[in-house]
Design a protein that fits this description.
Number of helices of chain B: 6
Number of domains of chain A: 2
Distance between the termini of chain B: 32 Å
Number of strands of chain A: 21
Structural class of chain B: alpha+beta
CATH superfamily of the largest domain in chain B: Cyclophilin-like
Number of domains of chain B: 2
Number of helices of chain A: 5
Helix content of chain A: 10-25%
Number of strands of chain B: 13
Shape of chain B: elongated
Radius of gyration of chain B: 20 Å
Order of helices and strands of chain A: EEHEEEEEEEEEHEEHEEEEEEEHEH
Largest sheet of chain A: 7 strands, mixed, barrel
Strand content of chain B: 25-35%
Oligomer: heterodimer
Order of helices and strands of chain B: EEHEEHHEHHEEEEEEEEH
Shape of chain A: elongated
Radius of gyration of chain A: 20 Å
CATH class of the largest domain in chain B: Mainly Beta
Chain lengths: 340, 250
């Protein structure tokens, strides 16, 4: 439990689905416990770095209709991912930059402008107790996060102690400490892309790709697939041309992961997300590349997806480029702080 | 328990494992084509070997019936992009596979009994499975409760056991469309597999009964009741016994 003097965050209204997330709990898949964590991990990592946290600190994942929450003490925060029209005490705030919220300020959200999932990081991180090494909320198992569930009105979330970088960013932003202040700088578009509706999602072939009819293989890459209402943190059921497998032989269950596109016998694909299962028995037609998990997480029900084939070599080059950009961000932030 | 059986000849122990990618951060090591105690032992042995000798950038391993999927961090295994990530991991694994040799025979594992109330509301697909097999519902129950199963792996959901040893006559295809919600404790069949839903989740297996026992609880020291390598037997119980047992569950 937090010490009485520690900072906290009061949930006044929970929004549609607001959960505590970090980068997940690897290492327990052999017991069937999924990795989970932020669906748009890149956005959470950037938000954390903007407030001087380690990139894997816990923040809030905010889905489509955002919460109302109050900072009980002055707090350095950053919002990344979806633009859900955020305001502080009624004043619009910009995405993707360090922001000082004075004590008692209320963060609220309005209409979704771009994307599906916003991430809120606060300096010091959300300090709920880790479960199996992670603070991520795994809703289906009622595990981790805040009592294993989505946030509700009245919840009081503990906030950790800001790191030295976070303290420096806060000090530069908030000399008076009583006014809402945003940094003049923001990372580039590569790290803070504006989510686009109906995105193109790049994928590599899955292990069972060759079991599908040539026409179905072509249709998967050429035709749009709508995200149905059956879309949650576990995966999206898609609606499009029926995809036919050449055999009806049952498969033995094997590993599936974030981004696996599996096709049940009905022929409509399912793309799995972070709260997917650890193993599954449907044929794995394709695998979304890690660099596009953010774009996938930001696509909302009702939108269309198109898949574009890339090679494994391209996928890993894109992974490394994204990782290189993320790893360069702390240095860029230090340079900003060093400016006269 | 883990002795070679005559029908394992297509998957000789020591046959070269196949490697293929699962996306840009995992590689699948395939040890055989069918459910077999020999393949199971090889997977368990290689998983244990990797746990004892992890390479830089190894995230975790996920065993399944015929595969061990190895998750890795492409940044770390490539030393920040200096080497091709997949080829680097595959070369490391091939070297380890060549060095690991034949798996040791596992010790006799303990036997776990799982009470199940078959049919009716707990097993809405029992009649379909019976029809598919050309058996009566009572015969399906008898054949499902007869074998000593092997827990091949825990997967799909926390605490969900995949069991080897299903009577071949009971093999039934999955549903064309998964159900949106299957209650915890429900026992199902999918192709040649049987298992138990440990949490309420969506699922496409044919549902034949339900156990009143909890299989997963995050508050337990070991949150999964079952673990890979155990032996398991289903014990048919009445609805009244189901209700009595459920009262004593946490």
């Amino acid at each position: 439990m937090p010490a009485p003097s520690s900072m906290s965050l009061s949930i006044l209204h929970p929004g549609l689905l607001t959960t505590v997330q970090d980068l997940g709990r690897p290492g327990y898949q052999h017991a069937g416990v999924v990795v989970g964590g932020a669906l748009d991990a890149g956005a959470l990592r950037v938000a954390n770095l903007l407030v001087g946290n380690a990139d894997g600190a816990a923040g809030l994942e905010i889905t489509l209709r955002g919460p109302h929450l109050r900072f009980d003490a002055g707090t350095l925060l950053a919002l990344t991912g979806a633009d859900l029209s955020p305001t502080l005490d009624g004043q619009p705030v910009k995405m993707n930059r360090p922001t000082w919220a004075p004590a008692s300020a209320v963060l609220a959200f309005g209409a979704p402008r771009a994307g599906c999932r916003a991430y809120l990081a606060v300096a010091g991180g959300i300090a709920v107790a880790p479960v199996l090494g992670s603070r991520a909320t795994y809703l289906r198992a009622g595990l981790g996060g805040w009592h294993g569930r989505a946030l509700q009105a009245g919840d009081l979330l503990p906030v950790g102690q800001p790191l030295p970088t976070g303290q420096r960013i806060a000090a530069e932003l908030a000399e008076s400490r009583v006014t809402i202040t945003q940094a003049s700088w923001t990372p580039g578009r590569q790290l803070c892309p504006v989510p686009r509706p109906s995105p193109i999602i790049r994928a590599v072939r899955g292990p069972e790709y060759g079991q599908f009819a040539a026409a179905s293989q072509r249709a998967f890459w050429d035709e749009p697939f709508a995200i149905t209402a059956a879309a949650d943190r576990m995966g999206y059921r898609l609606q499009g041309p029926a995809l036919r497998r050449l055999t009806d032989a049952e498969l033995l269950s094997s590993a599936v992961t974030h981004g696996t596109v599996q096709v049940p016998a009905g022929g409509q694909p399912i793309v799995l997300l972070a709260d997917r299962q650890t193993t599954g028995g449907y044929p794995r037609l394709a695998q979304v590349i890690t660099a596009d998990f953010g774009a996938l997480a930001q696509a909302a029900p009702g939108q269309a997806l198109r898949f574009q084939e890339v090679s494994l070599v391209e996928a890993q080059a894109l992974y490394l480029a994204q990782e290189r950009a993320l790893r360069a961000l702390p240095g860029a932030i230090r340079l900003q702080l060093a400016r006269p | 328990m883990l002795r070679p059986q005559p029908d394992d000849v297509s998957v000789p122990p020591g046959a070269p494992a196949q490697l293929y990618p699962l996306g840009d951060a995992a590689v699948v090591v395939q040890f055989g084509e069918g459910i077999s105690p020999v393949t199971h032992a090889a997977i368990q042995a290689f998983g244990a070997h990797l746990a004892q000798h992890p390479f830089t950038g190894l995230r975790e391993c996920v065993p399944a019936f015929t595969t061990l999927t190895v998750y890795y961090d492409p940044w770390l295994v490539s030393d920040g992009g200096r080497h091709p990530p997949y080829e680097t991991v595959a070369a490391t694994l091939r070297k380890m596979l060549a060095a690991a040799g034949a798996p040791a025979v596992a010790a006799e594992a303990d036997l776990v009994e799982i009470p199940v109330c078959y049919g009716d509301a707990f097993g809405p697909d029992l009649e379909f499975v019976a029809h598919h097999a050309g058996l009566s519902a009572a015969e399906v129950i008898a054949r499902h409760a007869a074998p000593e199963y092997l827990v091949h792996m825990i997967g799909f959901a926390p605490g969900f056991p995949y069991l080897g040893g299903l009577d071949a006559r009971l093999a039934t295809p999955r549903l064309a469309q998964p159900r949106p919600l299957v209650p915890a404790g429900t026992v199902g069949i999918a192709g040649p597999q049987t298992g138990i839903y440990s949490l309420p989740t969506p699922g496409g297996w044919q549902l034949i009964g339900r156990t009143p026992l909890r299989l997963f609880d995050a508050a337990w020291a070991a949150p999964s009741r079952l673990r890979a390598g155990q032996r398991l037997r289903f014990v048919p119980i009445s609805a009244a016994e189901y209700a009595r047992t459920q009262q004593h569950e946490p």
